[in-house]
Amino acid sequence: MAKQMDAFSAALMADKREIIFAPTVYKFDTFAAMAEEFKLNERDVVLTNEFIYVPFMKDLGLKCQFVFQEKFGAGEPSEEMIQVMYDAIPYDTYDRVIAVGGGAIMDLCKLLGCKR
Fold first, then answer.
1. Does 17 reside within a domain?
2. CA-to-CA distance for 85 and 104, rounded, in angstroms?
3. Is 95 domain-assigned?
4. Domain for residue 76, yes or no?
5. Measuring CA to CA, which residue among 102, 108, 55 is closest to residue 84?
6. Residues near 23 by Cβ (< 8 Å), separated by ≥ 6?
7. Which among 49, 60, 80, 108 would be 20 to 30 A from 100, CA to CA?
8. What is the enclosing helix (H) or strand (E) of 7?
9. Residue 52, domain extent
10. CATH of the domain at 52
11. pTM (2 decimals)?
12. How far apart are CA 65 and CA 71, in angstroms?
């Protein structure tokens, strides 16, 4: 015997509308210009690599929490690497996550954002 769907569920199934979020893309000549525009502060986490941080960010004196991917492991993010990173960055200490780097950095930042 097939179970009947309630009216609310049937209405949801019939509604074929989509919600689309279009990103806004910003371009800056330097990390300093981006940091100034978005007023980076102590409630921001910047996930990057130390070899990018030293020449482009270190001398800016920003109050952000800088997290270096290589401190948690090498290569593609593993579940263990992600968990150690979560434990090192308490979710109540940041409002924004900024990724500066390659694919692994981007993936880790998306996961940190979702964790939040």
1. no
2. 13
3. yes
4. yes
5. 108
6. none
7. 80
8. helix 7-14
9. 31-115
10. 3.40.50.1970
11. 0.74
12. 14
For 77, phi then psi, to 5°, come to -65, 130
Domain count, the chain: 1
Query: 41: helix, coil or strand?
Result: coil
In which band, very low, low, confident or very high, does the pLDDT at 116 lie, cut at 50, 70 and 90? low
Contact 42, 65 (CB under 8 A): yes
| Location of structure tokens 């179970």 | 3
Residue 100 lies in a domain: yes
**Which residue's structure tokens are 């009947």?**
4
The span from the CA of 61 to the CA of 32, in Å, is 10
CB 43 within 8 A of CB 71: no
Residue whose pair of structure tokens reads 């330097």 in the numeric block: 30
CA distance to 22, 42, 79, per residue, from 86 (Å): 28, 17, 11
- Interval 16-62: pLDDT, tens: 676 777 788 889 999 999 999 999 999 999 999 999 999 999 999 99
